[in-house]
Specification:
Elements (H helix, E strand, L loop, with lengths): L1 H18 L42 E2 L7 H10 L3 H9 L22 E6 L3 E3 L5 E4 L3 E3 L2 E3 L3 E6 L13 E17 L8 E19 L4
Antiparallel strand pairs: 1-3, 2-7, 3-4, 4-8, 5-6, 8-9
């Protein structure tokens, strides 16, 4: 009886092997390997130092609008990452003068040099290493909206003389910056797609005063 069973099993193995013969040189690939993000085929997104499409015709180091923003992929990654809430809290709980949590209006401010001030939520930005990153912003997941807001101020006449300072003083409008942390999403990191990175953003427009001079 045991001998008959062995013969039957051996024949079954031969039949199964003949139905699905292994293809020479074929190696099964994971399912996620067949569906790269659609935005990965443009503007060299595999190289993070290459500026994204949203930065075309712009000298800014961040994008407030992005037609290729991977909103769906970020939502899926948030659902799969049980540590996301902790990472988000590390940046969202900041509350300083230049890093604010969901402001609504700008206070009236007056400076010596003309500037533009705004509260922004970047979708992409270039970090301090020169790499463009996807910033987690305006994402609805887990019954809440995840946002990261920061205050920026850009000089309109950088390097020019301060308009309200007398000519007897050497003066110059100076763009100052701040290092800000954002929670970012990396679509090509399968295991750790979220990280906190540092970005340099325009923070204020100062007037640099030099020595008092008398012109004859």
């Amino acid at each position: 009886m045991a001998l008959m069973l062995s013969v039957v099993l051996a024949c079954a193995g031969l039949v199964l092997g003949s139905v699905h013969p292994p293809a020479y040189g074929h190696h099964p690939q994971p399912a996620y390997g067949h569906h790269a993000p659609a935005y990965g085929h443009q503007h060299g997104y595999c190289d993070p130092t290459v500026a994204p499409a949203c930065a075309d015709n712009s000298t800014l180091s961040y994008c407030l609008e992005d037609a290729e923003y991977p909103e769906y992929e970020i939502k899926a990654a948030i659902t799969a990452d049980h540590l996301f809430a902790k990472k988000y809290a590390d940046v969202a709980d900041l509350n300083t003068e230049l890093s604010v949590d969901r402001p609504n209006t700008l206070d009236e401010e007056t400076y010596l040099c003309p500037s533009e001030t705004a509260y922004v939520r970047p979708l992409r930005a270039q970090n301090t290493e020169g790499k463009w990153r996807v910033v987690v912003n305006n994402i609805d997941a887990h019954y809440q909206t995840f946002t990261q807001t920061t205050r920026i101020e850009e000089c309109l006449t950088s390097a020019d003389a301060c308009p309200l300072v007398p000519d007897c003083y050497e003066s110059k409008c100076l763009q100052k910056s701040i290092y800000h942390r954002f929670l970012v999403y990396n679509p090509y990191d399968q295991y750790f797609p979220f990280a906190i990175e540092t970005f340099k953003l325009p923070a204020s427009c100062a007037c640099l005063l030099g020595a008092y001079t008398i012109d004859h």
